[in-house]
Write a structure and sequence with these properties.
The protein contains twelve helices and twelve strands. The chain has helices at residues 8-21, 26-41, 52-60, 89-107, 124-131, 185-194, 214-219, 228-241, 250-256, 284-296, 306-318, 324-331; strands spanning 3-6, 71-76, 79-88, 109-118, 136-141, 162-166, 174-178, 203-204, 210-211, 221-222, 265-273, 320-323. The strands form three sheets. The protein has a seven-stranded mixed β-sheet with strand order 2-3-4-11-5-6-7, sandwiched between helices. A three-stranded antiparallel β-sheet has the order 9-8-10. The longest helix has 19 residues, at 89-107. The chain is globular and about 55 Å long. The site of NADPH dihydro-nicotinamide-adenine-dinucleotide phosphate (NDP) has 25 residues, from strand 7 and helix 11.
Length: 334
């Protein structure tokens, strides 16, 4: 595969130019580009520039408001809400970050719902914005049906990711961020594009038969990780980001979507916790370090998030590589 090399700032400039040219104002374009290029920086290609054609499609179809002005309100002493004004999630999340952190510090715990947003990115970005303030954080969002429920053979749940982060002094936080499907759908799309096969157990074809062909899985559906246990977590996420906050579940998002290839409208829930307010009489951060040290003494282990943060050193000096075909497609949007 032919690839093209870009520095992180070249990739960011390109994404901003394309988004502005296709209908975003500067503030929205910059927020989306920040998130997309953070994914490229950490070598998470499925949520990097690979997503730009979907963003453009949703601007061109008029589904998403590229000039969104998110609005913040307080629903209860430690429950906040941001209405994303039918825009992309990153600017709504930027609006949410500081008020949520302050509310968690004041109350020990705080939750934020985001409604009327279009989420097309990885969740660790929002988690890190809270762990860097010394908070422990969780995030949940849904998508459109692509995962079979336990016992079923048709798409019903979104790939419904959840992420959790714990802050660490003078080093990157521990963050896990995972789809409740065996893999993020973007990873399957990239495997189909690049002609790779999938590991066993990722998904089933349209007839419900196991397959390792990514296109057959895209035409059929993914499976939840861990069988019925992963399916229950996917169900929990549907409830948190749908009925709890008055936004769309995955099946409702699909019914309302125009299928332009961009992200559907949906919601997200963030929970921030101040570890200093939960009664540990010793330093909770030092206590956590003992846990991490004990864990890492075992051969073969690592902390979730380490792969990504190690990649930062590489991309800061070497930049990123994207397929020439993707670069050509992005250029055609200008
Ligand atoms: P992966 O299965 O690649 O990784 C899941 C998590 O497990 C990561 O935090 C990863 O850390 C960690 N991990 C992997 N291997 C190990 C190991 N050996 N030891 C310890 N930890 C490990 O991710 P998914 O395919 O499930 O999801 C990819 C992304 O897709 C996520 O960022 C998710 O937010 C996003 N997504 C977004 C959706 C949306 O609608 N917006 C929908 C679905 C997914 P590390 O990164 O360091 O490898």
């Amino acid at each position: 595969m032919n690839e093209i090399n870009l520095s992180l700032s070249q990739a960011h400039d390109l994404a901003v130019r394309v988004l502005i040219h296709n209908g975003c104002n500067s503030e929205n374009a910059t927020s989306v580009a920040d998130t997309m290029i953070a994914a490229e920086r950490d070598i998470c290609h499925s949520h990097g520039l690979f997503r730009l054609p979907g963003y453009v499609a949703s601007l061109r179809s008029g589904k998403v408001n590229g000039n969104a002005k998110p609005r913040l309100e307080r629903l209860a002493p430690s429950v906040l809400r941001v209405d994303g004004d039918n825009g992309y999630a990153p600017l709504a999340l930027k609006t949410a970050r500081d008020p949520l952190a302050q509310c968690a510090t004041e109350n020990g715990i705080a939750a934020m719902s985001l409604i009327n947003i279009h989420h097309f990115s990885a969740l660790w970005v929002e988690i890190e914005s809270l762990t860097e303030k010394g908070l422990c954080a969780m995030a949940f969002t849904a998508y459109t049906p692509s995962v079979a429920p336990a016992g079923g053979t048709k798409p019903f749940y979104g790939t419904n990711p959840m992420a959790f982060g714990w802050p660490r002094a003078n080093q990157p936080p521990m963050v896990f961020d995972q789809a409740t499907a065996t893999q993020a759908r973007g990873e399957v799309m990239i495997a189909a594009r690049d002609g790779h096969t999938l590991p066993p157990g990722v998904g089933i074809d349209a007839r419900g038969n196991p397959t390792n062909d990514p296109q057959d899985v895209l035409d059929g559906c993914l499976l939840p990780f861990g069988g019925y246990k992963g399916a229950s977590i996917a169900l929990m996420i549907e409830l948190l980001v749908g009925p709890l906050i008055g936004e769309r579940c995955s099946f409702e998002a699909e019914a309302a979507d125009n299928h332009d290839g961009g992200p559907p409208r949906g919601g997200e829930v963030l929970i921030a916790i101040d570890p200093r307010r939960f009664g540990n009489t010793e330093d909770p951060y030092a206590h956590a370090e003992r846990l991490f040290t004990a864990l890492l003494e075992m051969d073969g282990t690592r902390l979730p998030g380490d792969r990504r943060t190690r990649n930062r050193e590489k991309t800061a000096t070497e930049g990123i590589a994207i397929p020439q075909s993707l670069h050509d497609r992005i250029q055609s949007f200008l």
